[in-house]
Design goal:
Elements: H1 2-5, E1 6-15, H2 28-42, E2 50-53, H3 59-67, H4 73-77, E3 83-86, E4 92-96, E5 102-109, H5 113-128, E6 135-136, E7 140-141, E8 153-160, H6 162-166, H7 170-179, E9 182-186, E10 198-203, H8 211-236, H9 240-255, H10 261-276, H11 285-294, H12 297-304, H13 310-325
Antiparallel strand pairs: 1-5, 1-8, 2-3, 3-4, 4-5, 6-7, 8-10, 9-10
């Protein structure tokens, strides 16, 4: 059930270099120094990462990286004095001079926060051996935003909550979880929506508890959410009308000549639920998850190697969906 609901797990560690202001107060020359210091440290890592200056990338490439959750929308918004280190499979990335000097991110499929943390912690340890990291014995790791003080770790799980979205329960659940120190947001973080019923569940508290405790807490919440999503979905599937809605969703995806992103992801969300319940058996949830990324505007244009008008994207999107699902 984990792969049907818990799509991926992410650990993000914020770190800053001693002796330098935070990026929002850092001069252009200071940013260049930070980039150079981090680049030298990255080159010594046991895990080999590619290093790229953001100014060398096209805007379309940057947006496509946002769509793949490789970098944040804020990071893509300005390229000056920023760089990125990334593994070949894109499971590991380090944003340099985003909100903090370093944002170490590790993403693993399914519910795998502990595995992601082990990798992030190893990278952090190796970088800390080369860089002087800002740390206070009382406040922990020093970060630009006070809400990240302490461990400076955000653990999050991307979850497909199609049934809870259908039953309009997500808002109530999110309000209850916020009281416990957790937050549910759209798939691209604060302020984003969830057209594909994909949500990020993450911890809010970073001060006063260990990384392991934070991970255990969020995994317990995820387990309960998976059970609730599953029971809600089984209840929905008792309706022949809902089963028909799922089958019709697959039919539209296989025959549409033009399709917008918002319509496509809603239909794919329905198909994803149908796969988990055995109503649709000629594709997999992994294929659906890949499609949700592939059919986003910038990713489509990057794959085509050229800019496309909205109408052209709708046509290409429909073709990609049919080819992939068949």
């Amino acid at each position: 059930m984990s792969s049907n609901v818990a799509v991926s797990s992410r650990i993000r560690l914020a770190r800053n270099l001693s002796g330098y202001p935070f990026p929002n107060r850092l001069s252009d020359s200071g940013k260049a120094e930070v980039v150079e210091k981090v680049k030298e440290a990255v080159e010594s890592l046991s895990t080999k990462l590619m290093f790229v200056e953001l100014s060398d990338l096209s805007q379309n490439s940057l947006v496509a990286m946002v769509e793949r959750h490789l970098i944040s929308p804020e990071f893509a918004g300005s390229t000056k004095g920023r760089a990125l280190a990334v593994s070949e499979d894109e499971s590991i990335s380090i944003m340099i001079n985003e909100e903090d000097h370093l944002r170490i991110q590790v993403i693993k499929p399914g519910l795998a926060l502990k595995e992601a943390y082990e990798i992030a912690d190893r990278i952090d340890t190796e970088l800390s051996a080369k860089l002087q990291i800002a740390f206070d014995k009382n406040l922990g790791y020093l970060t630009q935003c006070p809400t990240n003080l302490g461990t400076a770790m955000r653990a999050s799980v991307m979850m497909h909550l199609g049934a809870l979205t259908e039953s309009k329960s997500v808002g109530r659940i999110a309000a209850n979880l916020q009281k416990l120190g957790f937050v549910i947001r759209g798939s691209y973080g604060e302020g984003s929506d969830a057209p594909s019923s994909m949500y990020q569940l993450s911890n809010q508290v970073t001060l006063g508890l260990s990384e392991q405790t934070a991970i255990d807490n969020i995994e317990n919440i995820v387990e309960k959410l998976m059970e609730t999503e599953q029971s809600t979905l089984e209840s929905l599937m008792n309706s022949m009308e809902y089963q028909d809605k799922i089958s019709r969703s697959m039919g539209i995806l296989l025959t549409a000549r033009l399709i917008s992103f918002s319509e496509a992801v809603k239909l794919l969300s329905n198909v994803r639920m149908g796969i988990s319940q055995g109503i649709i058996d000629n594709t997999t949830v992994e294929t659906v998850d890949k499609l949700i990324v592939m059919i986003q505007p910038a990713s489509l244009m990057q794959a085509e190697g050229k800019d496309l008008t909205p109408a052209e994207r709708d046509k290409v999107r429909a073709e990609v969906i049919k080819k992939t699902l068949r």
